[in-house]
Amino acid sequence: MKDVLKRIVFGKREKYWWMNALVPLISILLAFIVGAIFIKITGRSPVVAYKLLFGASGLFPGPYWKSHFAEMLLSSSMYIATGLGFAIAAKGGLFNIGAEGHFIVGGIAAAYLGYAKPFAGLPKFIHLPLIIVGVMLAGGIWGAIAGYLKAKRGIHEVITTIMLNWIALYLIEAWLVIGPMEAAVETGISGTPYISLSAKLPKILPPTRLNISIIIILAVTFLIWYLFYKTTFGYEIRTMGHTLMFGMEAPKAAGINVERRTIQTMFIAGAVAALGGAFMVLGVLFQYPPIFEGGYGFDGIAVALIGQNEPLGVILAGILIGALRTGATTVQLAHIPKTFPSIIEGFTVGFIALQMLIRYWIMKLIQGRKKSVQTEMGGGAK
Amino acid sequence: MNSNIPFLNASIAQALDYTAPILFAALGGVMSENAGVVNIALEGMMRFAAFFGVWGSFVSGNAWVGLLWGVGIGIVLGALHAYITVKWAGDQIISGVAINVMAMGMITYLLESVFKTTGYSPPVAYFGAPASKIHLAFLKGIPILGAFAELTILIWFALILVVVLHFVLYHTVLGLRIRAVGENPHAAETLGVNVFKIKWFAVISGSVLAAFGGLALSLGTLSSFTNSMAMGKGFIGLAAMIFGKWTPFGALGAILIFAGAQVLQLFMQGTATGFAKLIPLGFYLSLPYMLTIGALIGVVGKAVGPASDGVPYKKES
Amino acid sequence: APAEEEPPVETIKIGLVTDVGGRGDRSFNDSALRGLETWAGKVKYVKGGGYEAITDAEFDASIPEDLKDRNIQPLGVSAKVLESKDKKDYIPNIASLVEQEKCDLVIGVGFMLAGAIGESAVKYPDTKFMLIDAPPVDEDGNMIDPPNVVGYLFNEHECGFLVGAIAAYATEAGKVGYIGGMPIPPVLRYEAGYRAGLKTIDPSIEIIGQYTGSFTEPALGKSAAESQISQGCDVLFHAAGATGNGMFQSICERGAPYWGIGVDVDMGLDENLCPARTLTSSLKHVDYATYLAIKSVVEDTFHSGLIIMTLKDGGVGYAPDHVADALTQDQIDKVEHLREMMIDGVFEVPTDPPDVDNWTPPTDF
Amino acid sequence: MKALEVKGIVKQFPGVLANDNINLSINKGEIYAIVGENGAGKSTLMKIIYGLYTPTSGEIFVFDKKVDIKTPYDAIGLKIGMVHQEFMLIPRFTVTQNIVLGDEPSKGIVFDYKKALNEVEELSEKFGLKVDPAEKVANLPVGIQQRVEILKILRRGAEILIFDEPTAVLTPEETEDLFKTLMKLKKNGKTIIFISHKLKEVIAIADRIAVLRRGKLQGIVERGKTSEVELARMVVGRDVVLKIPKAEAKVGGTVVSIRDLTVKSKRGIIGLKEVSFDVCAGEIVGIAGVEGNGQAELVNALIGFTRPIKGTIAFDGEEIRVITPFNIRKKGMAYIPKDRKMRGLVLPFRSRENIIMGQHTLYPFSKNGVLNNIEIDKFTTKKLEEFDVRPRDIHTRARNLSGGNQQKLILAKEMSMEHKFLLASQPTRGLDIGAMEFVYHKLIEEKERGMAILLISLELSEIMGLSDRILVLYNGEIVGETTPDKTTEEELGLMMLGLKKQKRVAQ
Ligand SMILES: Nc1ncnc2c1ncn2[C@@H]1O[C@H](COP(=O)(O)OP(=O)(O)OP(=O)(O)O)[C@@H](O)[C@H]1O
Ligand SMILES: Nc1ncnc2c1ncn2[C@@H]1O[C@H](COP(=O)(O)OP(=O)(O)OP(=O)(O)O)[C@@H](O)[C@H]1O
Ligand SMILES: [Mg+2]
Ligand SMILES: [Mg+2]
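Above: the input entities. Below: the structure tokens describing the complete assembly.
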């Protein structure tokens, strides 16, 4: 997917542009092959496993397809959100491990705005947008903290985002959810109160749970793409992406306000990742439970990387992972542990990392000369 | 007063016990990143090693065999990471994430296949057993030093490694070359330093260190593998390495602050009275993390890594 | 007795959805699985999935002391278990158990599934559902009572109270520890009961209580235990899931005079923990509840509603483990007497830790 | 005896034929110069000889033996050493560590730093290249850094030394030192290949001169058998007016005025002491000085990279309290940085993206925050033509441009930007004479359009030729102010070394 959009903007530039699309596909294919071998080794049947996996993945029509399809898109929308959270920061040369934190911050914000008095009971067309805005603000601010510390204090974002993840977790689950925001426990079910009807994401494919979250995230993704490749703001962020990590100062010298952009980039990253948490609360759980157990944040990194940090790529990768996870629970019926799909996810990312090798193979196929491969890389490498 | 000495020592001992796994991971990071290869797979490597250590100890009934298995998987993963990032100049972040994700899936899968459970392994021979600890009776009762009276061999190893690694990096030819490769591989190459060899070495030895981190957890602190045991420790190690400005002693310092706060936090919770009782649990639990950021803002400040850390090294064509 | 009659021709299918803890949590997920697989199904889970039958010996061994007299017999049902990796999985898991596996009864383990079971119950009126630790709720979190759902709650505070009392007698230091995972309702009920029990026997006993913030971090559990021990505690009780393994770890390393108290299941029987120094365990018979629910389906006596499992009906209790070694017969009798009193409703045990302070303990026992 | 021979070397880059069948034969003990336009293929050829690039075809002979140089390691083995256009140094390491790296004196595995220090000491004595072995390279001015590079290759017993534009970054003094060194090396029988754009130098020092153009060998001239003019014609393919056109300054109002500016240097010592001066519309003020005497500090303060510890900077009569590159550029300042790669360009970006950096927010490149690609491409095409950036392709990544062409791209970017004040720090570094001439004309043009220009340069000829007023920086202070017609290069030289002060014209 790499550079696809660059090409849309700049016209076909790289000689072997189609490679950028082909490589991830081959990576995924290889991952499934290796995955099959792995199952075989551990004494199970790859055929059965994949049958179940894909049968229930929602990717292909089949029994109960509708509900699987719905479940797939439900997860995908969350993976895309956290994936973008990572990709956006990466575009600006920032290494954001904070999607996990942004996710739960988004969750709690959504829950609060969803049940708290002044808001709850507003008409849906006001309440829902209001929640979305609030969620993005909350997640954005949480992200901006890391951005601020990076910009003003030069503190490495890796540290701050990791620490902020844990701080968010504990402040939310060991304070807010069991304190100020705790529900009246007469049902014995703790966590925050449930959100009002007006806060729930409208369903779009009854009787399934599928709701507008996927539409929202697709829209957001488009906006992000537009931001990056069509606006001066995105242009500035990309100049940082190529220089920040290597201590180059060209953008700053050119009068680009790098500090502010850094903070803004982290804000946007946080805001988008937070949407994922909101989707979980507004569309699936309807409350913030005592223990949230996201995990979406870290998978988001994988999603972003499989998608080569490009908006379109993130969408496709998000759908892939969403499908794998949806099919995941059903493979248990063949007595294959539910985590099997994340093995495939791992292999996929692995082969993506090995794309130089894959490119080299492809090149060899087209014209078995190593030199040309290297020059192609020298010329086209990021 | 004297009555507090045992408690003080015990607390320090706990802090050290808590430190060891993270410290190993951080040192692993120091090793490979000084050679210019980012390793965010510390987390996954710990998890792999924690499991294989237990597995080895389980089948052999001998903790040392477990140790070997753990080191073995460390080498394998290191080789994988090096093959991707050094041989094929692949993106180091992507490669690292790949290993982390695989660790999540594969280990659960193996745990299930080997021990028929997705939760825990049975207990195995380990280094934390009172018998196998290093006993320095003469230290007992001395304030602070007393904490070192009964530590596992792995904790000692971690502490000694800090010194060793410092020596290697800053006082040996190898160290000079490692750092040169991390700073400017092209310069190093024009002087005939074999950049690739150095990177391979640093990455593999780095991940072996990370592997020890996993072992310190499953065969040091505990005696079994728990599916979620290494959760986040590798990343804390990563953070500590950066906090410590990519130096062994720096990392140690960072982790001691963190582990200290962790122990303190638990203690304060337990003995909270009066006003302290009103402080929500969340603030106690997040104290170590807030403290870390605080320390960075207040004291440590800006950290700059090796100049070409994370930059894939490709020969010009 | 119903157990004597032949199992029905086409076997009844029971589905079970674990919460994210999953199989092998050595806690209530495993407990529920015992009720379904070991007791109702008389099978055991084997490598690579699948089941194999177990011998009568194994079967009898699996039944805890305090349930021996409750006539637990195989029900010849077949089990379908789905683990959940994520909260989002509950509903799809239930759906595939109902739609694909055509299960007669679907069991949801843990209050996390309250919503999922609630929704599904409405969606699939012809399937029966059982929910552990909570009543079913609808999309707005309101308790509902569909005709096809039975919910089981447990009085953790009652068994917590008993182990508290035992701890009070067992401690020599006059200082005991409590380790919690996250302060969620069941855990809080345990803590409240525990504190109440201690207060009843000897108000002067000091309690050091710590929350590790996680149910899955044995290393933290160990730190907590070490910290409490180094502050002079000699009896430790945990309600922290896997985190608690760390507590038993340090108990095991130190041996006498330290005692550990297990939670949910009889951890004194768990070879993997520390049988030698497990004083007792506060039992929460999810297994028995599960068994009862299945039985009601098999015998077609299923009733919807909310069932609260108490000391009286064997829903909760304490495991004998090493109580006899640590306590004098006279003390044991006192504990037993307290048990009677609770069963007879002579006194109530608070369910929220803060309430313990101004709660007046029973005296004449 | 032939030291080095290349036969039919061809190097094809995607889209660019950098070297086209080049044949050279270089005798042992001679100083062999290679000149040519930017992008002619000089560096490429050298990199091939040093094993950094693999040629598409062609053969190399070293001391009459056919060799196959795959890596710099092979080159070193063949006693070939190279001082690169961009230095290959590790700033965080000390001079000594940099020099001994790869062949370290050691006791067992332990790095014997003391021994290394002595070795370097001796080495610099032996070749008369003064450096402080214990100093961090980051703290060294380029001149000294280059010495370190030379010592590096000498220590490896190099017989053939390649210098890629060594003088581009040097002050006249440093250049003279270097030439002394080169002659000394020549006496010791070393062979030297020397790339430069400064034809005067080349004629002064080289025994033979090869001229490259568009990747082809244009011709080889013997020492003394050519003149600067003639050589220039060979290089550029047309006559070049090396004399800088004089234009009378129509001095307007003050644009920038600096008062007792005091700035700390990277190393925390005071690098600039209480400097005061004005730059007016329509004049070029030249700053002469040996590198490391505060130029960097002055530049950093003006562009807002470092905050002065004392003093004020006023723009258009209005004092600016806190200067950031952002707000100062808004006020209308353009800046040609000395360091292309660090401050000039985003290397992975294409020409079209680089050239708008800094003005991307302005119409027509963008309108309410949305980029207008058609306009950008039009503009880029025009500018590449105007500033003769090669290749013309607006999609070339800056990374793949030759040094000189990168510099041209920066000039195109900065000079076409809306501005009142131009801060030019060594604007002609690495340019061929053709380009140099072009830049001179541009600067004069600017001035006539009423721009205020502050020119920082190590080239006295440049300073003398272009400036209307000359300020001499020494040791962080302005030790003299004069005008080209009132002084000579000699006098300036003395002032730059602090040997001669001159009363300043009162402000
Ligand atoms: N890695 C590369 N990929 C593609 N083209 C390249 C690469 N390196 C150099 N070129 C092209 O090869 C040509 C020669 O470059 P080279 O650096 O040898 O020029 P040069 O003579 O050194 O110019 P200068 O005097 O400005 O340094 C230039 O047109 C440049 O754009
Ligand atoms: N180790 C050394 N050996 C000899 N001279 C030195 C050494 N270190 C510093 N100097 C002198 O110190 C002066 C200041 O160097 P400095 O690093 O300030 O240059 P600079 O102005 O920062 O370089 P630039 O303008 O390229 O940024 C130089 O003139 C140099 O001659
Ligand atoms: Mg060049
Ligand atoms: Mg200077």
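Note for the figure: Chains D and C do not touch (no CB pair under 8 Å).
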